[in-house]
Amino acid sequence: CVLLLLVSLFVVGSAFAQKKAKKEKELSETELKTAQAVAAKMLDENLVMYMTASMSDFGRIALDGIKVTLIGDKFNCNLPYQGSSRINTYGSQNINVTAEDAVVQVESIYNEKKGYYKLNFSFESTYDSERFTATLKVFLSGKVNLELSSSRRGSVKYLGGLLI
Protein backbone atom coordinates (compact mmCIF):
# COMPACT_ATOMS: atom_id res chain seq x y z
CA CYS A 1 0.00 0.00 0.00
CA VAL A 2 2.81 2.40 0.92
CA LEU A 3 4.62 1.63 -2.34
CA LEU A 4 1.43 2.23 -4.35
CA LEU A 5 0.88 5.54 -2.53
CA LEU A 6 4.46 6.69 -3.26
CA VAL A 7 4.18 5.76 -6.95
CA SER A 8 0.86 7.62 -7.32
CA LEU A 9 2.32 10.72 -5.60
CA PHE A 10 5.30 10.59 -7.96
CA VAL A 11 3.00 10.38 -11.02
CA VAL A 12 0.80 13.25 -9.82
CA GLY A 13 3.88 15.38 -9.00
CA SER A 14 5.47 14.82 -12.40
CA ALA A 15 2.18 15.62 -14.19
CA PHE A 16 1.94 18.89 -12.22
CA ALA A 17 5.54 19.80 -13.12
CA GLN A 18 4.87 19.16 -16.82
CA LYS A 19 1.76 21.35 -16.72
CA LYS A 20 3.73 24.15 -15.04
CA ALA A 21 6.51 23.83 -17.64
CA LYS A 22 3.93 24.26 -20.44
CA LYS A 23 2.70 27.51 -18.84
CA GLU A 24 6.27 28.85 -18.65
CA LYS A 25 6.91 28.18 -22.35
CA GLU A 26 9.88 30.08 -23.71
CA LEU A 27 9.33 32.58 -26.49
CA SER A 28 10.56 31.72 -29.95
CA GLU A 29 13.34 33.88 -31.37
CA THR A 30 10.86 35.89 -33.48
CA GLU A 31 8.48 36.39 -30.53
CA LEU A 32 11.38 37.47 -28.34
CA LYS A 33 12.59 40.02 -30.92
CA THR A 34 9.05 41.41 -31.26
CA ALA A 35 8.62 41.63 -27.47
CA GLN A 36 11.99 43.41 -27.13
CA ALA A 37 11.04 45.86 -29.90
CA VAL A 38 7.67 46.56 -28.25
CA ALA A 39 9.39 47.17 -24.89
CA ALA A 40 11.87 49.56 -26.57
CA LYS A 41 9.00 51.43 -28.25
CA MET A 42 7.17 51.73 -24.93
CA LEU A 43 10.23 53.29 -23.28
CA ASP A 44 10.62 55.62 -26.26
CA GLU A 45 6.85 56.42 -26.28
CA ASN A 46 6.88 57.01 -30.05
CA LEU A 47 4.11 54.66 -31.11
CA VAL A 48 2.95 54.34 -34.70
CA MET A 49 0.02 51.97 -35.13
CA TYR A 50 -2.12 50.76 -38.00
CA MET A 51 -5.73 49.96 -37.17
CA THR A 52 -7.19 47.05 -39.12
CA ALA A 53 -10.69 46.66 -37.61
CA SER A 54 -13.33 48.58 -35.69
CA MET A 55 -15.71 46.88 -33.26
CA SER A 56 -18.84 48.33 -31.69
CA ASP A 57 -22.36 47.27 -30.76
CA PHE A 58 -23.14 47.66 -34.46
CA GLY A 59 -20.65 45.00 -35.56
CA ARG A 60 -17.13 44.72 -36.88
CA ILE A 61 -15.79 46.76 -39.79
CA ALA A 62 -12.52 46.10 -41.61
CA LEU A 63 -10.26 49.15 -41.82
CA ASP A 64 -7.53 49.65 -44.37
CA GLY A 65 -4.53 50.22 -42.09
CA ILE A 66 -5.51 53.63 -40.72
CA LYS A 67 -2.51 55.27 -39.06
CA VAL A 68 -2.66 56.36 -35.41
CA THR A 69 0.33 57.90 -33.62
CA LEU A 70 1.30 58.70 -30.05
CA ILE A 71 4.59 60.57 -30.27
CA GLY A 72 5.75 61.95 -26.96
CA ASP A 73 2.70 63.79 -25.59
CA LYS A 74 0.97 64.30 -28.98
CA PHE A 75 -1.84 62.03 -30.21
CA ASN A 76 -2.99 61.88 -33.86
CA CYS A 77 -5.87 59.91 -35.36
CA ASN A 78 -8.63 60.09 -37.95
CA LEU A 79 -10.74 57.03 -37.21
CA PRO A 80 -14.12 56.24 -38.73
CA TYR A 81 -16.91 55.93 -36.18
CA GLN A 82 -19.81 53.51 -36.23
CA GLY A 83 -22.02 53.62 -33.18
CA SER A 84 -24.76 55.48 -31.39
CA SER A 85 -24.73 59.18 -30.54
CA ARG A 86 -26.31 60.61 -27.42
CA ILE A 87 -26.20 64.25 -28.55
CA ASN A 88 -26.84 65.69 -32.01
CA THR A 89 -23.95 67.87 -33.11
CA TYR A 90 -25.12 70.71 -35.33
CA GLY A 91 -22.86 72.32 -37.87
CA SER A 92 -20.52 69.34 -38.20
CA GLN A 93 -20.83 66.69 -40.89
CA ASN A 94 -17.72 64.85 -39.73
CA ILE A 95 -18.51 61.91 -37.46
CA ASN A 96 -14.93 60.58 -37.51
CA VAL A 97 -12.87 60.66 -34.34
CA THR A 98 -10.15 63.15 -35.28
CA ALA A 99 -7.21 64.46 -33.28
CA GLU A 100 -4.32 66.47 -34.71
CA ASP A 101 -1.39 66.86 -32.29
CA ALA A 102 -3.75 66.66 -29.31
CA VAL A 103 -1.73 67.12 -26.12
CA VAL A 104 -2.15 64.15 -23.77
CA GLN A 105 -0.84 63.02 -20.41
CA VAL A 106 -0.29 59.27 -20.58
CA GLU A 107 -0.62 56.97 -17.57
CA SER A 108 1.22 53.73 -18.30
CA ILE A 109 0.73 50.37 -16.57
CA TYR A 110 2.44 47.07 -17.41
CA ASN A 111 0.42 43.89 -16.91
CA GLU A 112 3.10 41.22 -16.56
CA LYS A 113 0.63 38.35 -16.21
CA LYS A 114 -1.17 39.08 -19.50
CA GLY A 115 1.86 40.55 -21.31
CA TYR A 116 0.69 44.04 -22.33
CA TYR A 117 1.22 47.72 -21.61
CA LYS A 118 -1.94 49.68 -20.84
CA LEU A 119 -1.89 53.38 -21.64
CA ASN A 120 -4.68 55.64 -20.39
CA PHE A 121 -5.15 59.20 -21.64
CA SER A 122 -7.77 61.75 -22.68
CA PHE A 123 -7.87 64.03 -25.68
CA GLU A 124 -10.09 66.60 -27.31
CA SER A 125 -11.24 66.15 -30.90
CA THR A 126 -9.99 68.69 -33.39
CA TYR A 127 -13.26 69.87 -34.97
CA ASP A 128 -15.93 69.93 -32.27
CA SER A 129 -14.02 69.88 -28.94
CA GLU A 130 -15.54 66.53 -28.00
CA ARG A 131 -13.61 64.95 -25.12
CA PHE A 132 -12.56 61.30 -25.48
CA THR A 133 -11.10 58.88 -22.95
CA ALA A 134 -8.71 56.40 -24.52
CA THR A 135 -7.39 53.07 -23.29
CA LEU A 136 -4.60 51.69 -25.45
CA LYS A 137 -3.33 48.16 -24.86
CA VAL A 138 -0.02 47.31 -26.54
CA PHE A 139 0.70 43.58 -26.39
CA LEU A 140 4.20 42.12 -26.48
CA SER A 141 3.16 40.34 -29.69
CA GLY A 142 2.87 43.75 -31.39
CA LYS A 143 -0.95 43.80 -31.46
CA VAL A 144 -2.80 46.87 -30.20
CA ASN A 145 -6.34 47.52 -28.96
CA LEU A 146 -7.59 51.11 -28.73
CA GLU A 147 -10.87 51.74 -26.91
CA LEU A 148 -12.45 55.19 -27.11
CA SER A 149 -15.34 56.45 -25.05
CA SER A 150 -17.09 59.79 -24.83
CA SER A 151 -20.05 61.24 -22.97
CA ARG A 152 -21.62 62.05 -26.37
CA ARG A 153 -21.23 58.66 -28.09
CA GLY A 154 -21.17 54.94 -27.47
CA SER A 155 -17.73 53.44 -26.96
CA VAL A 156 -15.89 51.82 -29.85
CA LYS A 157 -12.85 49.57 -30.01
CA TYR A 158 -10.19 49.54 -32.73
CA LEU A 159 -7.84 46.61 -33.36
CA GLY A 160 -4.51 46.79 -35.11
CA GLY A 161 -0.78 46.39 -34.90
CA LEU A 162 2.26 48.35 -33.83
CA LEU A 163 4.64 49.48 -36.56
CA ILE A 164 8.05 48.19 -35.45
Give a verbal description of the structure:
- There is one protein chain.
- Helices cover 23% and strands 46% of the residues.
- The protein contains 2 helices and 9 strands.
- Strands 4-3-2-1-9-8-7-6-5 form a 9-stranded antiparallel beta sheet.
- A hairpin with a 4-residue loop joins strand 5 and strand 6 (116-124).
- It is elongated.
- Mean pLDDT is 82; it is low at 20-24.
What's the SSE blueprint?
Elements: H1 2-23, H2 29-44, E1 46-56, E2 59-71, E3 74-79, E4 97-103, E5 107-111, E6 116-124, E7 131-139, E8 143-150, E9 156-162
Antiparallel strand pairs: 1-2, 1-9, 2-3, 3-4, 5-6, 6-7, 7-8, 8-9
Query: How many angstroms separate the termini?
Result: 60 Å
Note the total helix count.
2
Instruction: Tell me the Rg in angstroms.
Output: 22 Å
pLDDT below 50 for ≥5 consecutive residues: which ranges? 20-24
Instruction: Describe the global form.
Output: elongated
Strand content: over 45%
The helix-strand sequence is HHEEEEEEEEE
Q: What would the average pLDDT be, to the nearest integer?
A: 82
Helix/strand structural class: alpha+beta
| Share of helical residues | 10-25%
Give me the count of strands: 9
As laid out across the biggest beta sheet, the strand order is: 4-3-2-1-9-8-7-6-5
Please give the largest β-sheet. 9 strands, antiparallel
Attribute tags:
164 residues, 23% helix
